[in-house]
Design a protein that fits this description.
By secondary structure, the chain is of the alpha/beta class. The strands form 2 sheets. Strands 1, 2, 3, 6, 10 and 11 form a 6-stranded mixed beta sheet that branches. The protein contains 2 helices and 11 strands; from the N terminus they run αβαββββββββββ. It has one domain: Sandwich (Protocatechuate 3,4-Dioxygenase, subunit A).
Length: about 180
């Protein structure tokens, strides 16, 4: 004797389980937060306010942690470039975990997949200015393994290495990726 209602019930329960799992999971699956934005460019992060001298030593900011997928397709020594195309802007503030002060002259690594090439071709090093900010314009991102994403990293000797992967939406025109670096040792 056939029981089609039993098969329908089983399929319904499986579907409900899958929907519940998807709703409870992270969209990127890697801990990568969405940092993209559409519309006119705006300042990245508000300027840090200097502490009075007696408190400056006490202040500490939480260091940025490497996240899963942060080093995907990383190649050391990316060339120093001002641009990787046009249509998408990546900006950020780089500061020290000790004192939360902006860091000048820090080499920030950036790589992403665009219509002009993959992550290994679209990579650059940019330096922070006196205000600790960096900026690079690129071609718009494209989906890589299901979602558009960007990578930002630091790998010089003075501070601990940090490699992060952040996701954006296909219609985003910019992303803000800040780094807070902790000293080695």
């Amino acid at each position: 004797m056939r029981r089609p209602w039993l098969l329908a019930l089983l399929l319904g329960l499986v579907t409900v389980g899958i929907v519940a799992a998807l709703l409870a999971s992270e969209p990127s699956g890697t801990g990568a937060e969405n940092v993209g934005e559409s519309g006119p460019e705006r300042p990245a992060t508000p300027e840090p306010r200097p502490d009075p001298p007696e408190r400056a030593v006490e202040r500490r900011c939480e260091a940025t942690q490497t996240n899963p997928g942060g080093t995907n397709n990383y190649i050391p020594d990316a060339p120093e470039l001002d641009s990787l195309g046009s249509g998408f802007v990546i900006t950020g503030l780089v500061r020290s975990a000790d004192g939360c002060r902006p860091l000048e002259g820090v080499r920030v690594r950036v790589w992403l997949a665009t219509a002009t090439g993959g992550e290994q071709e679209n990579r650059a090093t940019v330096r922070t200015g006196a205000d600790g900010r960096y900026r690079i314009e690129t071609a718009p991102t494209v989906a890589q393994f299901g979602e558009p994403n960007i990578h930002v990293g630091y790998d010089d000797d003075e501070y601990r290495e940090v490699f992060i992967r952040r996701v954006v939406d296909l219609d985003d025109e910019r992303a803000v990726v800040d780094l807070t670096l902790a000293r080695r040792g």
